[in-house]
């Protein structure tokens, strides 16, 4: 507010009233006039706006009388404390980081309203569009206030219905399986995909585009994605409007090279595209990757491969010409790691397949990012290519968001082999930010107990070599299988290294003290005549060649593994044990939901100067040969029916995994399988004392697997079709594990 001049038109004095915390000189500094200036209404208005814009004052008025410019101010209060009430889904520290206002900052209504909108936006991102926020101000002495945000989080805003408009090739049910967003239902309590998320809807548009392009619809477009909130603000209706266009087939596939030394004819077999097949954009991308990797292996680091796609809408054919040209020569200037607070830079850098000065390679960059993600230290990993100091230089910025790597786990479970069991463990997977792994674990079960301490240094002596140790104590109840219990105390040293991305080797040394106890009086003679106390000093190695797409849930690729263990460098036992494992996984569809797999394993042990012990031999059945109990196949004492293990064994599996046709959020898959195998060979047996038939055993069955949030659960029903009379069969098999 401005009061106009009366009397003298020259400002003889400037007087500030109402200020307690802010100095008068500070107020004068924001004025457009000073003492001695003529009174100018325009400059007075500018001064008024300048004072309001500081955010220091709730009200300002300027008056002019008899040469005195009177400025009356009402100071905004200072925030003493900020509190949140009613929030349970989002914690105080999460909300506090989003606020502009802080304690000891000047309170303004504009900033409060802005902070209210920020809080609402956080709740919307978590799917709660019905949330409300009411700011409350508590007046305190000395012009201070407490600011309280009263929050009603409301219910999660679900998705009542997902509609598709314009789709003809695929029905709504098929497209619903493609996108991440799902309709709300009572059984979806373990997923948030049925809550509305605008970012997820944007991602769904891309998923729809990829799906149609992989099915031959090269002209496909998502015209719109509209989300409409119901009047009660509890749910959304989401509608995707699509334009499918026509469906194309592959036509002529050609390769043109602008580099003299590269012969297109030698590259043609790398392209897995057949003329006449339906167009698939994924196959085009795969062809570019295959060509890039092959040419890169020939020493050409700077390659630019572009597919020239020509549509013939009349015939419904797409002809593609892959043009190979020299790309711009770009080198890695430096690698910057940002976002890491606890993890050392070198932990991230050592996973990169590129270093400063290397020729830039997109395939190596992709592999580097995957290796950093595989560390499992970060919530997110984003690698950006930024301009360097010159046109031929690039800077790689690795932006990571750390997550907790310390774990305290308590577990419970049930398995057909082990019965009920409980687990507890303390683990730090990124000790001191150096990527080291330290674990202390306990297992207590109906048939086994174990305590173990392990430590792993992934880059020993700053080399790409892992090293670690294990200390353990185990007690196993083998009464059901072989009429004895076993106690084992040991220590192990291990190291591992890679020859290539696929080929790796590990070496180990272990020393263990063993003791048999509670040997049944009518146990097998072979067991009763063994020395119940013995020690093993073992050195071993494992060589692995692994081309699977995942080590946990493989769906494509193969692996071969060879292990050898030699006991005799000290200890009371001397033997050589060898195992060979392998597997092949072949997806039958593009989505890799139908997977045919074959797995095989074999092993042999022989004593050097001494007979092998029961605990050193191989036991077949159970997990490695379904349809038979654990240790249900192989040499068995005729009189006591105790399993005594075989010196040689082999097992194999042919299995088909497939979807059950249920919504994807159920995470249920089915399987049919056939297992086969055998075991034979015993040291020290007398004629007519041991059943030892090496004949082939086989079974067939089916099962269901559930990747639950509590761990994998599996149920298998199987029937032995090739067996011996002394084998022990098993029809039902359950495995269950959980952590909480």
Automatic annotation (TrEMBL):
PROSITE patterns, per the entry: POTRA
Keyword Disulfide bond on entry: no
Species the sequence originates in: Thalassospira permensis NBRC 106175
Similarity comment text for this entry: Belongs to the BamA family.
Keywords: Cell outer membrane, Membrane, Repeat, Signal, Transmembrane, Transmembrane beta strand
Domain POTRA: 9-76, 77-154, 330-403
Database matches in HAMAP family: OM_assembly_BamA
Family annotation (PANTHER family): OUTER MEMBRANE PROTEIN ASSEMBLY FACTOR BAMA, SORTING AND ASSEMBLY MACHINERY SAMM50 PROTEIN FAMILY MEMBER
Location(s), subcellular: Cell outer membrane; Membrane
Gene: bamA
Subunit structure: Part of the Bam complex.
Name this protein carries in UniProt: Outer membrane protein assembly factor BamA
Function as written in the Swiss-Prot or TrEMBL entry: Part of the outer membrane protein assembly complex, which is involved in assembly and insertion of beta-barrel proteins into the outer membrane.
């Amino acid at each position: 507010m401005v009061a106009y001049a009366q009397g003298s038109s020259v400002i003889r004095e400037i007087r500030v009233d109402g200020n307690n915390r802010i100095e008068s000189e500070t107020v004068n500094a924001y004025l457009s006039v000073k003492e001695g200036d003529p009174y100018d209404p325009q400059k007075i208005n500018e001064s008024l706006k300048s004072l309001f814009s500081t955010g220091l004052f709730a009200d300002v008025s300027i008056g002019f009388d008899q040469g005195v410019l009177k400025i009356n101010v009402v100071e905004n209060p200072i925030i003493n404390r900020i509190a949140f009430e009613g929030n349970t889904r989002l914690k105080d520290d999460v909300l506090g980081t989003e606020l502009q206002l802080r304690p000891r900052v000047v309170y303004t209504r504009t900033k409060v309203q802005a902070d209210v909108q920020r809080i609402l936006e956080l709740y919307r991102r978590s799917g709660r569009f019905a949330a409300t926020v009411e700011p409350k101000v508590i007046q305190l002495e000395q012009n201070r206030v407490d600011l309280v945000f009263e929050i009603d989080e409301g219910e999660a805003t679900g998705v009542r219905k997902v509609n598709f408009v314009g789709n003809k090739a695929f029905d709504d049910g098929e497209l619903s399986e493609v996108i991440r967003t799902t309709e709300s239902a009572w059984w979806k309590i373990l997923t948030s995909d049925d809550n509305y998320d605008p970012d997820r809807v944007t991602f769904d548009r891309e998923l729809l585009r990829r799906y149609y392009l992989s099915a031959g619809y090269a002209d496909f477009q998502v015209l719109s994605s509209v989300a409409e909130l119901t009047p009660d603000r509890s749910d959304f209706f989401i509608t995707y409007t699509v334009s499918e266009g026509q469906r194309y087939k592959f036509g002529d596939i050609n390769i043109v090279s602008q580099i003299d030394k590269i012969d297109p004819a030698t590259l043609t077999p790398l392209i897995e595209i057949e003329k006449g097949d339906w167009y698939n954009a994924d196959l085009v991308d795969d062809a570019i990757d295959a060509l890039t990797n092959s040419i890169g292996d020939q020493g050409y680091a700077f390659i630019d491969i572009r597919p020239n796609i020509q549509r013939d809408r009349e015939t419904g054919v797409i002809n593609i010409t892959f043009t190979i040209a020299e790309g711009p020569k770009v080198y890695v200037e430096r690698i910057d790691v940002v976002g890491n607070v606890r993890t050392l830079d070198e932990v991230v850098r050592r996973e990169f397949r590129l270093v400063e000065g290397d020729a830039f390679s997109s395939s190596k960059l992709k592999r580097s990012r995957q290796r950093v993600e595989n560390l499992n230290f970060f919530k997110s990993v984003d690698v950006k290519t930024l301009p360097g100091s010159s046109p031929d230089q690039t800077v790689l910025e690795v932006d990571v968001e750390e997550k907790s790597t310390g774990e305290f786990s308590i577990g419970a479970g049930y398995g057909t082999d082990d019965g009920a069991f409980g687990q507890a463990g303390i683990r730090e997977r990124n000790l001191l930010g150096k990527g080291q792994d330290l674990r202390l674990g306990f297992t207590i079960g109906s048939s086994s107990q174990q305590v173990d301490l392990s430590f792993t240094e992934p880059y020993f002596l700053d080399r790409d070599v892992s090293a670690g140790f294990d200390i353990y104590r185990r007690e196993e109840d083998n009464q059901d299988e072989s009429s004895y219990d076993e106690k084992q105390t040991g220590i192990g040293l291990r190291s591992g290294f890679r020859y290539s991305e696929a080929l790796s080797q590990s070496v180990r040394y272990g020393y263990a003290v063993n003791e048999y106890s509670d040997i049944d009086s009518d146990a097998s003679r072979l067991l009763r005549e063994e020395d119940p106390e013995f020690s093993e000093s073992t050195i071993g190695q494992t060589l692995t060649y692994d081309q699977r797409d995942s080590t946990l849930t493989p769906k494509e690729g193969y692996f071969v593994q060879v292990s050898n263990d030699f006991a005799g460098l000290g200890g009371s036992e001397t033997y050589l044990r060898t195992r060979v494992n392998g597997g092949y996984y072949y997806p039958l569809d593009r989505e890799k939901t139908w997977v045919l797999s074959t797995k095989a394993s074999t092993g042999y042990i022989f004593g050097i100067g001494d007979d092998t012990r029961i605990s050193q031999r191989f036991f077949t059945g159970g997990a490695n040969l379904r349809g038979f109990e654990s240790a249900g196949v192989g040499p068995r004492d005729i009189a006591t029916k105790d399993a005594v293990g075989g010196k040689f064994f082999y097992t194999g599996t042919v299995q088909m995994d497939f979807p059950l046709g249920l919504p994807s959020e159920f995470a249920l898959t089915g399987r049919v399988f056939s297992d086969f195998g055998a075991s034979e060979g015993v040291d020290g047996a007398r004629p007519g004392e041991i059943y030892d038939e090496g004949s082939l055993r086989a079974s067939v069955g089916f099962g269901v697997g559930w990747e639950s949030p509590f761990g994998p659960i599996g149920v298998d029903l199987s029937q032995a079709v090739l067996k011996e009379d002394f084998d022990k069969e098993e029809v039902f098999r359950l495995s269950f594990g959980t952590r909480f």
